[in-house]
UniProtKB/TrEMBL annotation:
Lineage: Bacteria, Pseudomonadati, Pseudomonadota, Alphaproteobacteria, Rhodobacterales
Protein name: Small ribosomal subunit protein bS16
A Pfam cross-reference name: Ribosomal_S16
InterPro entries registered for this protein in UniProt: Ribosomal_bS16, Ribosomal_bS16_dom_sf
Family: Belongs to the bacterial ribosomal protein bS16 family.
GO biological process: translation
Residue stretches of biased makeup (Basic and acidic residues): 85-112
Gene Ontology CC entries for this record: cytoplasm; small ribosomal subunit
Recorded GO MF terms: structural constituent of ribosome
Keyword Coiled coil: no
Region (Disordered): 80-124
Domain of life of the organism encoding this protein: Bacteria
Organism: Paracoccus shanxieyensis
Keywords from the named record: Ribonucleoprotein, Ribosomal protein
Amino acid sequence: MAMKIRLARGGSKKRPHYAIVASDARMPRDGRFLEKLGTYNPLLAKDSEDRIKMNVERVQYWLSQGAQPTDRVARFLEAAGISPKTERQNLKKGEPGKAAKERAAKRAEREAAANAPAEEAASE
């Protein structure tokens, strides 16, 4: 059975509150889980102690059983010192979008067309 340590969303609209849970990877995000391992409240200040609470012993148990943490939970584990920090690269983040690429291409064509007659006049 593929196990995940992930977030299960609770709370009302625009007031999220998450439970850190160990669950079967095939179950829905807010569906059945095996054990609640902690809580995460993103509405609290980043330096608040109550923002992330985890039962570290149980998290380590599930990791030893082969459970894979999701990206966000992996960041929590790194911050708590449970798992080693990993280098992340978002190669697409700095890349312009489709519309921006089209605008840049049109701008380059206009500049090339505007510079071409000026270069011909200068060479004569």
